[in-house]
Amino acid sequence: MTVLVTGGAGYIGAHIVRLLREGQEEVVVVDDLSTGDASRVSGVPMVQVDIAMPASVGRMAETMAATGTTSVIHLAARKEVGESVARPMWYYQQNVAGMANVLSAMELARVSRLVYSSSAAVYGAPDSGYVREDDVTRPENPYGETKLVGEWLIRDAARAWGLRGVSLRYFNVAGAGWPNLGDPTVANLVTMVLDRLSRGEPPEVFGTDYPTPDGSCIRDFVHVLDVAKAHVAALDYLDRLDRPFDVFNVGTGSGHSVLDVVRVLGRSTGSVGLPSLLGRRVGDPPRVVACVERIGAVLGWRAEAGLDRILASAWDAWRVREAGGRSPASQPSAVAQGTP
């Protein structure tokens, strides 16, 4: 019994792979290594292939058959909101075609269990800051749209050939379960703040006049290792005969402001000075926090790490990377409000 993980050499994927291996599961990774790092999953069988290409279907199906794959965790996707707005067709080709190819390979290989990496971006700017799985989905960018289409494809495959699928809608993933598995990019709020602070520059915060306690946006930050544990719980869920839901939020149920994150990281790094306070960005809702009642009641999962632990682990991972002489992938350094 083997779990195939697409995107398994990436930030979240490497955590899932390590957690599965610690649980004595057999794992195989499929990754094109465009953003992943093979050294993060050293010792794990890997197939390097671009899942968005048509030829990947046969390659993945052969891999599933040869390794005795019984379940797939599908994470491989493009995930930069701004990039998706600039290159919408490419995002659909990468994310939607990639999902279709994974499902086609699973059908060919008769693999019926799938855990899908979705996103809170499917909600867009919700009317309520406390988001439930049955709230209206109205993504505001092509990235969120492609994630929602992926969920639809899973439901279509379930009706067509009996796929057992579940989608996990991540909120703001941060931190590191192990210091050598920190977020390798500077594209999310926490690493963007650390990047600015490490260069002696003030973090930039967009919007400080929202109807929140300190005026900055509030988001739900969840530890990457807790996210990995949610995938393991979802795999177990797929073995049940009674599966009343196919979508779960993955968050903490608690919100923290962008300025909270900046303050905590400033203390952790020993940096002094105030952030640069800029005007609002278009499309940033004041508050987005996950309702996690469903995943707790049905999967028995809950986030264990709070904000201080998340940020401490991110700082530890950042220092390990800098000590090794490796710089994060080059990304814009202005601090965003932390879209999911």
List keywords for this structure.
340 residues, alpha/beta, UDP-galactose 4-epimerase, domain 1, 4-stranded mixed β-sheet, 10 helices
Question: How would you describe the overall organization of this protein?
Answer:
This protein has 340 residues and is α/β, with parallel strands linked by helices. The protein folds into two domains: 2-173 and 222-250, NAD(P)-binding Rossmann-like Domain (Rossmann fold, 3-Layer(aba) Sandwich); 176-220 and 252-323, UDP-galactose 4-epimerase, domain 1 (Alpha-Beta Complex). 39% of the residues lie in helices and 18% in strands. The strands form four sheets. The chain has a seven-stranded parallel beta sheet, with helices on both faces. The radius of gyration is 19 Å and the shape is globular. Residues 327-340 have low confidence and may be disordered.
Rg, alpha carbons = 19 Å
Can you give the mean pLDDT?
Answer: 92
The major beta sheet can be summarized as: 7 strands, parallel
Helix content: 25-40%
Structural class: alpha/beta
Write the layout of secondary structure elements.
Blueprint (H helix, E strand, L loop, with lengths): L1 E5 L4 H12 L3 E6 L14 E3 L7 H12 L1 E6 L6 H6 L1 H22 L3 E7 L10 E2 L10 H20 L2 E7 L1 E3 L14 H10 L5 E3 L11 E2 L1 E3 H14 L9 E4 L5 E2 H12 L6 E3 L8 E4 L2 H7 L7 H17 L17
Parallel strand pairs: 1-2, 1-4, 2-3, 4-5, 5-7, 6-15, 7-12, 8-11, 9-14, 10-15
Antiparallel strand pairs: 10-13
Helix pairs in contact: 1-7, 2-4, 4-5, 6-8, 8-10
Structure summarized in a few sentences:
With 340 residues, this protein is an alpha/beta fold. It has helices at 11-22, 56-67, 81-86, 88-109, 142-161, 189-198, 224-237, 258-269, 293-299, 307-323, and strands at 2-6, 26-31, 46-48, 69-74, 113-119, 130-131, 164-170, 172-174, 204-206, 218-219, 221-223, 247-250, 256-257, 276-278, 287-290. It has ten helices and 15 strands.
